[in-house]
Amino acid sequence: MCNNQYSKSSTQKTVLITNNIIDDIDELEDIIGDEAFAAFLNYDAEIQIRE
After folding, report:
1. Residues 21, 15: Cα–Cα separation, whole Å
2. Residue 27 near residue 19, CB atoms below 8 Å
3. b or e along 28-37 (b: 16 or more beta carbons within 10 Å of the residue's beta carbon)?
4. 8 Å CB contact between 48 and 41
5. 21 φ, ψ to 5°?
6. C-alpha pair distances (Å), 12 with each of 3, 21, 39
7. Do 15 and 21 meet the contact criterion of CB atoms below 8 Å apart?
8. Could you tell me how far CA 19 lies from the centroid of its own chain?
9. pTM, whole model, 2 decimals?
């Protein structure tokens, strides 16, 4: 049972982090606009970040 509780807790944390990231991306799109936001995407709609 302990292992199952850990797995469930870990999954819940992952979902919360993912939801926070999605919310941040949505806010970014609202701030910079659709066209500027689209410039950051590749053909697979993945955000491209370069150092």
Report:
1. 10
2. no
3. eeeeeeeeeb
4. yes
5. -65, -45
6. 14, 14, 32
7. no
8. 6
9. 0.46
Give the amino acid at 28.
Answer: L
User: In this structure, which amino acid lies at residue 2?
Assistant: C
Task: For residue 25, give both structure tokens.
Answer: 């991306």
* Residue from 37, 42, 14 nearest 26 by CA: 37
Reading the block at residue 30, the tokens are: 């609202």
Q: Which two tokens mark 27?
A: 């806010």
pLDDT one-digit tens code per residue, 1-51: 455 555 667 777 777 777 788 788 788 878 888 888 888 787 787 777 666
